Amino acid sequence: MLEDGIDFCKNVEKLILNDTFDNYIDAVLHLCDDKGIEPFVAARMLSKPIKEKIKKEGQEINLLPRKTRLPIK
Question: Is the model's pTM score more than 0.85?
């Protein structure tokens, strides 16, 4: 059964808070497998804060390019 976005986000956060998973990427992929939905469908249900956390995780493990920063002196 397909969940709404709020329930899906709550379940992602619950997996993180219960230390079932230590990152959001794995938690979302686990829920996708568990619920039988494609990740691109789940992506539309994620809240902006969770999307930002996934983006940061992706940059940390070099899956996504880092935002270039100008050196400030």
Answer: no
